[in-house]
Amino acid sequence: PRLHGGQRYVLVIAGQDKPGILKRATTALAARGINIEDWTCQFEGAQVSYIGFITVPASVRIADVQRELQRTLGELVFVE
Questions:
Q1: Dmax of the chain from CA atoms?
Q2: Across-strand partners of 55?
Q3: How much is the average pLDDT of 30-38?
Q4: Residue 57's closest CA among 10, 21, 3?
């Protein structure tokens, strides 16, 4: 069951593995009340892909979340 109601999305963050990526992403999600329902990561050499299933509350626009993650993570990674 979804804790917050709202809409479920798949979040993909990919780029070179660097310290702090996961902390920045999860902090930004938590600040908007977004629940992470499942999270996995895959490594290929120096590259990492984080794939998460998240539930975004109805009061939060997904476009705003995307912009926030892109701003928060800067050029560290690619966010989709």
A1: 39
A2: 8, 35
A3: 95
A4: 3
Give the percent of the chain with pLDDT over 90.
64
50 and 36 in contact (C-beta within 8 Å)?
Answer: no
DSSP letter string, 47-79: EEEEEEEEEE-TTS-HHHHHHHHHHHHGGGEEE
What single letter denotes the amino acid at residue 16? Q
**Average pLDDT score over residue span 5-12:** 90
Region of 33 (left: φ > 0; alpha: ψ -120 to 50; beta: rest) is: left
H-helix or E-strand spanning residue 14: strand 7-16
pLDDT tens, residue by residue, 39-70: 999 999 989 999 999 999 999 999 999 999 98
